[in-house]
Amino acid sequence: MKLDRTILITGASAGIGAACARLAAGYGADIILTYRRDRAGAEAVAADVRAAGRTAQIAACDISDPAQIEALFADIAPDTALDLINNAGIVAAKASVTEMTPERLQQIFSVNVVGAFLVAKHAVTHMRRSGSPGNIVNVSSTAARLGSANQYVDYAASKAAIDTFTQGLADEVAAEGIRVNAVRPGLIETEIHAKGGEPDRLQRLVHMVPLQRAGRPEEVAEAILWLLSDRASYVTRSILDVSAGR
User: pTM of the full predicted structure?
Assistant: First the structure.
């Protein structure tokens, strides 16, 4: 599989985003990676990309801030052939719906939904101006199907919005040669569980997975990169579960 474009990956300092950057470099892509707080993590990923012989640019970008998203795209050369992995997202501590505050909901949706919309908006605008139609993969979650009751219903709802957004945007831009798809990871070995206050979540829930194990970020990354590649040239408006059957 060959990827000979520049891939913008939001939230690439760890987890699935970092795995995408490292694997994509091995497939020949140059990388622009964003982070919100973990500069050291982003630097480590960029070093691995460069060690693979590809270029890596790092940008601090809180995608809940529209001005930072605009600044991110202003720094991308206008003629760059660009693909997007719309990965950045957050989760809050486990809670029931009756415990969720307006502030929490605003934060979750400002990053996971509004931020993702705006990043994709700017990516499409860039693709049109550059004259090089690219591909977008949005990172959703199987939580969008399962609901995550008594855990993260707000996160699940935000990812359900990403599913619908993926389909609608795909319809809008397909005639221009821009493909838009999504992946829904299941139980994956990343830091997001600890950030949600449940570091043991994988061990507690893995018995529900038909394959009886958690997934690795690299397994999700391979699916994402396939969707970006020419091997998926007839695939758009699709949502691919990477969840071991759950």
Answer: 0.95
Q: At 197, is the pLDDT very low, low, confident or very high (cuts 50, 70, 90)?
A: low
Q: Which residue(s) pair with 83 in the sheet? A: 7
Instruction: Round to whole Å and give the CA distance between 135 and 127.
Output: 9
Spatial separation of the C-alpha atoms in residues 51 and 109, rounded to whole Å:
36
Q: Where are the domains of the chain?
A: 6-242
Find the DSSP H helices in 33-147. 39-51, 66-74, 102-109, 116-130, 143-146
Interval 32-62: pLDDT, tens? 999 999 999 999 999 999 999 999 999 999 9
222, two tokens = 């391979």
The class of domain 6-242 in CATH terms is: alpha beta
For residues 99 and 18, give the distance between their C-alpha atoms in angstroms, rounded to a whole number.
Answer: 32
Which residues are identified as catalytic?
155
What's residue 194's pLDDT?
60
